Amino acid sequence: MNKSVLVTGAAGFIGRHLVEHLSDQGYSVHGLDRSNADPVSSCDSWHIADIMVSSELCSAIKDTKPDFIFHMAALIRGDSLEDMLNVNVIGTRQLLDALLKFSRETVVLIPGSAAEYGCVFDDELPITEQQTVRPVTAYALSKVAQSLIAQQYWLTHKLPIVRTRPFNVSGPGEPASLVCSAFARGIAEIEKIGSSGTLTVGNLQSERDFIDVRDLVRAYTWLMHNGQTGQVYNICSGQSIKIQRILDLLLGMTNCSISVKSEFEKSDHTDIPKIFGSHQKLHSQSGWDPEITIEQSLSDLLDFWRSKLKLS
Question: pTM higher than 0.85, yes or no?
Answer without folding.
Answer: yes
